[in-house]
Amino acid sequence: MSDILDFVKWAYKENWEVKLVVWIFALFLAGKASYNYATKDTVQFTVDRPVEGGGESKFLIFTKTDAGTEEVFENTDSWFNLKVNSSDLQSQFKSGKKYSARVYGWRFRPFSMYRNVLSATEIGPDNAADKAEQEKQKRIQELKKELNELQK
After folding, report:
1. What end-to-end distance do the CA atoms of the chain give, in Å?
2. What number of CA atoms fall less than 13 Å from residue 40's CA on the CB side?
3. Nearest residue to 35 via CA among 101, 103, 90
4. Which domain holds residue 26?
């Protein structure tokens, strides 16, 4: 192990090509980290239609915001963000449902780049109304049960 370390030290010290490669790699990692972490955002949208991609766990999600604007998001595995569940995440998106999503990236049309969805949860009045209705029905059942017990 020490022989390898000695060789790396010698190569870095003696060869400008090795220094150049190391610096380019370091700049690449710094750029990738800043892109992935500095561009994170939380957005809300309604799914217009989720679309299967060209394989390899790449999907597109066509959405509309409350303001009426349309945006396309990408749902792709991202090793840099430790995201490997894009297929599972894609299966939860349903047309017409509203979601709050954590995304990163920029939309860059010349390279067909989209913001990537890291995570999403369903929100909205439909979901909240359903839960409220379920709680209401549950409470009614409990009250009926208590009334029946009192009448006995």
Report:
1. 83
2. 10
3. 103
4. 1-38
Distances (CA, A) of 82 to 43, 76, 77, 118, 152: 20, 11, 8, 9, 60
Q: Identify whether residues 114 and 89 lie together within a single domain.
A: yes
Which residue in this structure is represented by tokens 């840099």? 80
Q: Is residue 73 domain-shared with residue 108, that is, in the same domain?
A: yes
Residue whose pair of structure tokens reads 């915001």 in the numeric block: 65
Do the strands 41-52 and 98-104 form a parallel or antiparallel pair, or are they unpaired? antiparallel
DSSP tag of 135: H
91-145 pLDDT, tens digit each: 889 888 899 999 988 888 898 888 899 999 998 665 555 667 677 778 888 888 8
Q: How far apart are CA 24 and CA 151, in angstroms?
A: 82
**Model confidence, pTM:** 0.62
φ, ψ (nearest 5 deg) of residue 82: 55, 40
Could you tell me if residue 70 is inside a domain? Answer: yes
Q: What is the spatial distance between Cα 131 and Cα 139, in angstroms, rounded to a whole number?
A: 12
